Amino acid sequence: MRADWQLVIGLEVHCELRTATKLFCGCPNAFGDEPNTNVCPNCLGLPGSLPVLNQRAVELAMAIGSALHCDIRPSTFHRKNYFYPDQAKDYQISQYDEPINVNGHLDLPDGFRVGIERAHMEEDTGKTTHAGASGRIHGADYSLVDYNRSGVPLVEIVSAPDMRTPDQARAYVTELRAVLVASGASDGKMEEGSMRVDANVSVRRSVDDPFGTRCEIKNLNSVRSLGRAIEYEAERQIALIESGEPVVQQTRHWDEGAGRTQALRSKEDAYDYRYFLEPDLVPLVPDAEWIRAVADTLGMMPAERRARLAALLDGAGGPTDSQLLQVATVVDLGLDDLVVEAVAAGVGTALALARTANEAATDADAARRLDPKAYVELLTLEMQGSLSATQAKAVLAELFAHGGDPAAIAREKGFEAMSEDSLVETVAEAVGAHPDEWSRFCDGDDKLAGFFTGLVMKATRGQANGKAVAAELRRLRG
Amino acid sequence: MTAPRPALETATMVRAGELSAVDVLEHHLAVIEVGEEAVHAFNLVTADRARAQARAVDATVAAGGDPGPLAGVPVALKDNLCTRGVPTTCSSRILEGWEPPYDATVVTRLAAAGAVAIGKTNMDEFAMGSSTETSAFGTTRNPHDTDRVPGGSSGGSAAAVAAGFAPLALGSDTGGSIRQPAALCGVVGMKPTYGTVSRYGLVAFASSLDQIGPFAGSVADAALLFDAIGGHDPLDSTSLNRPTPRVLSVLDDGVDGMTVGVLTELLDGAAPDVVARVHQAAEALAAAGARIEEVSVPEVSLGLSAYYLIAPGEASSNLARYDGVRYGLRVDAEDTVAMNTATRSEGFGAEVKRRIMLGTYVLSAGYMDAYYNQALRVRTRIIEGFATAYTRCDVLLGPTAPTTAFAIGAKVDDPLTMYLSDVCTIPSNLAGHPAISVPFGPGDDGLPVGVQLLGPALSEGTLFQVAAVVEAAAPPLAAPRLRTGVPA
Fold first, then answer.
1. Cis peptide before A319 (omega within 30 of 0)
2. Is B327 at the interface with chain A, CB within 8 A?
3. Of A209, A399, B121, B129, which is the most buried if we count CB atoms within 10 A?
4. In this predicted structure, what is the pLDDT of residue B52?
5. Angle subtended by helix axes B21-39 and B47-62, to nearest 10
C-alpha cells in the first residue's frame, strides 16, 4: 500500500450458529450430510409452512452481542425478496432495520478498537451447483440444489469502516473468530463455510478526505485470501483514480487462483430486495433477565484469557515476544486452562506454556478432551526430572490416544525414572571410557558436555534426564 | 325434499350410536352425485378417504369410545388447506397435482374431533377474487341460481354447504372470502380474530390478513365448528397464546342490555334492498332488548384502498416460491431462470399476475413509503377508529356485501368493480377483528342477503350470541333450487 493513499476497510462476517436445529424449523443443523436429507416442509418452503423461531439461536445471537459489547434490543424480522433457486421461499428471513445487537466493539490484541455497527440474525440459503462452462446460473447445462443448509441460523456481524490496513482486517477476523468460538456461538471453521467474510474496501488520499466509493468483495474463504484480496482491490482502485477513472460501486468476486477481484454486479443492477416486515413472525423482545442470564453464561473472552496467561509470566524477565506468541496460540486453541491449572499445581509457567503451545497444540482437539489432572501430572513428572522431554512427549501421545495415568504409562513404556545411583554409575562409565575427551572437558571445553550427555542417552536409550546428566558432569569436574 | 340435518344433531346422534357416520357420509355423497355437476363446488371429492374416516368413527362408537364433538359430520375443505397425500391446488395450474406431505393444523383438529373430510372445494385462484371465477378449474355456481356467482374466494365451500353437499365447511378470509360468499349463498360464515385459528398448512395469500373460519347452515353449527378448530398452535408464531373464546355455550344468552351500532360507512353504496334488511335486523335486535345506535367510523372508508396495497404486497412475496424448482408445475426452458419465468407465466392466471405486479410495485424502492407504508398507517387508523366505536358499542352491524349474488361474467373483466364486492368485509381483516355473516332473508331478486356483525378482538362469544338472535328473527329464505330429494 502506497504511503500517499489511505485504505478504508469494513468487514461483514456471516457466522453459522452452533445450534442443534435450524433457525425456523426442527431439522438438524449439520454439515456434510447427504444432499436434501435434513429438510422439512418449512425449510423447503412448501406452501402453508410457517417459521417458528429457534430459542437457542436467539440465545447464541445474544451471546455474540454480549461478547461484542453491543446493546441487545427488541428486534424484528423482515423478508428480503429475490429469486434464486437456493432460496426455498424465494425470500430470505433476515433482520433489517431493527437488529437484535447494535453499537458494539471488538478490541484487537494490539489494543486497536474496531466498532461493531450491528450483529443481526438471518437464515442461510441452500447451496447450488451449476454444471457447464459458465459456472453461473445463466447458461448452465443444469443446476443442482441442496437444501440441507437452507434455514441454518446465521448472525451477520457488520463492522464499522474502521480498519486501515490489511493486517488490521486479518487481525480483526482472527480475533472475531476467537470470540465467536469462545462464546459458544460458532465452531469458527472458515473452510467449512461456518464463517464467511465479505470486505468493503475504498481508498482516499488523506484522512481528511471523505470516504471513497467502496466495492464489496465476496468469496473470501480464509484470512489469507482476505488480506490478498484487500491489497489487490486497493491497488486496482488507486490505479483507476490515478488514470482519471471513477471507482464504480460494485460487488466483486475474489478469484483465489487468479489473485484478483472481478465485477459481479454494479449498483445500477443491484437487486431491489423489497424488504417488508415478515408477517409470519412476531417481534422478538428479550427481557432484561434473559439477556443477563445469557451474559452470565459467557466464559472469558480471548483478550481476557491472554491477559491472564501474560500475568503469570510477569516478573522473571517475561513475557518475551516468543512467549506472547505461545500465549496467543494456546488461547486461540482453547488450551489456556491447562496452563493455568499446571501453574497452580506448581509447574513452572515457562515450561507449562511451552509444552502446551508446542506439544499439546499438535492435536488441540485431543488436548481439549484431556483430563487436566493427567496433563498436570505429566508436566510435574517432567519438571521433577522423572521424565525427559522426549519421554514426556511419548507419554502425551499415549494420553491423546488412550488417556490414562502418566506415571503408569511411563512405567509401561520402560520410562521408569533412573535412580540417582544408576545415573551416577552410567555417567562414570562414559567418563572412564573416554579419558581424552574428559580431560579436555575438565580443561574448559564445555561443548563436550553434549558429547557425554549423548553417550549417557545412548546407554540408557533416552531415559536419562538431560539436566541430571549435566549436573552430574559438573559435579565430577568439581 | 328433506331439510339437511344440523351438524350438532348429527354429531350427537353418532356419538350416541343412534346414527352411523357411514350412512351420514353416503347421504351427502349421494347429494353431491346429483348436484355437483350443476354447482361445481369441489375440485376433488375424497370419497374413499372419507369412507375410511367414517368407518373409523363408527368403530370408535361401537367400541364404547367417543369420536369427539364433530363425530361423523362431513366437512368440506377449501382447496388451500394442506391435506396429507391429497392434492391441494389453490385452484391454480401452478399447484396442480401437488400433494402436501403434511396436514394443516385445522385438518388435524377436525380429524381429532371426529369429523369426516369429504373433499376439497373450489376457490378463486390463490383466494384472489370475489366470485370463484378466477379458479383455473372452472367457476362454481350459486345453488340458489346457477347463473349467478357464489361469491368468493371461498365460493366452493359456501356453495357446498348451501347445496347440502356437506353440513360444514372451512374457508379462509383475507378480505371477506368467507363472509361474502356466505352472504351470497345464504349460509353462516365467520372470520375469527386474527391468531385464534392456526394458519399452519393454510397456503398463504396475505399472511397478516388470512384467517381460517367456519361455514355452516346455522349459527349453532358454525359455533360447533369454530370451537373445534380454534386455540393456540405452536407451529404458527402469530397464533395467540391465550384462551380462545368458546362460543357454543353462550348462544342462548341473548342481547338484553347490549349496544349495537349500525355502521353507517358500510351502508354507503349498498343496494337499497340490502340496506333495508340491515335495518330490519337492527329492529329485531332492538325488540330483543338491545340498544341500537348509528355509528360512524370514517376511517373504514379508506379500508379498500389500503387493503389493495397491503394484500398484494404480501402476496407478491408469498407467491414467489412457485418457481418450478421444487414442486408443482415446471415448464422447461433453456436454463433455470428461463424455466422460472416460463413456469410462472403459464402457471398463474391473470388476476394472480395482476396482484403480484401490484404488490411488487408497491414494495419497490422509491414507492414503498408512498404506498405500502402509507397503507400500514391507514391500517393503524382503522384500528383506532374501531376502538373508539367499541367504547360505546358491544358489536357493530352492517351488510356483508353491497348486493346479492351477481351474474356469472358480470364483473370478471372489471377488476375494480369486483374489488368493491369486499368493501364491507375488508375493515375487519385490516383490524384483525372477528366478524360473522348471518343470512337475513331474500333481497328483491329473491336471492340471499347476509347481514354482518363486527366485534373487537376476541369478542367471538358476543358475536355468536348476537348472531343467534339475528338468525332467529330472519325472514324465511327459499331453499336452493338445487336441493334435491335424496333421503336423509
1. yes
2. yes
3. B121
4. 98
5. 160
- Cell numbers placing B191: 372470520
Report the pLDDT averaged over residues B298-316.
97
State how far residue A213 is from chain B, nearest Cα, in angstroms.
21
pLDDT digits (tens, 9 = 90+) for A332-390: 888 999 999 999 998 988 899 999 999 999 998 899 899 999 999 999 988 887 888 88
Query: Annotated catalytic sites of B, by residue?
Result: 78, 153, 177
User: At residue B356, what is the residue type?
Assistant: I
Other Cβ atoms closer than 10 A to A53? 16
Domains of chain B, residue spans = 7-298+384-473, 300-382
Q: Which of B238, B340, B365 sits opposite A83 (nearest CB)?
A: B340
d(CA A105, CA A118): 10
ipTM reported for the complex, 2 dp: 0.95
For residue A260, give how far its alpha carbon lies from the nearest alpha carbon of chain B (Å). 28
Q: Do B360 and A90 touch (CB under 8 A)?
A: no
Backbone angles phi and psi of A266, in degrees to 5: -100, 170
Q: Set out the domains of chain A in order of their start, with CATH numbers.
A: 6-296 (no CATH), 300-412 (no CATH), 420-477 (1.10.10.410)
pLDDT given for residue A424 in this prediction: 83
Please list every residue in chain B whose beta carbon sits closer than 8 Å to the beta carbon of residue A145.
325
B308 touches chain A (CB under 8 A): no
Residue B214, CA distances (Å) to B239, B242, B297, B443 in order: 17, 20, 27, 24
Chain A residues whose beta carbon lies within 8 Å of the beta carbon of residue B377: none
Give dist(CA A142, CA A124) in Å, integer.
Answer: 23
The values of phi and psi at residue A171, to 5°, are -65, -35
pLDDT in tens, B347-358: 999 999 999 999
Q: Which CATH number fits domain B7-298+384-473: 3.90.1300.10, 3.40.50.2300, 3.30.160.20, 3.30.565.10?
A: 3.90.1300.10
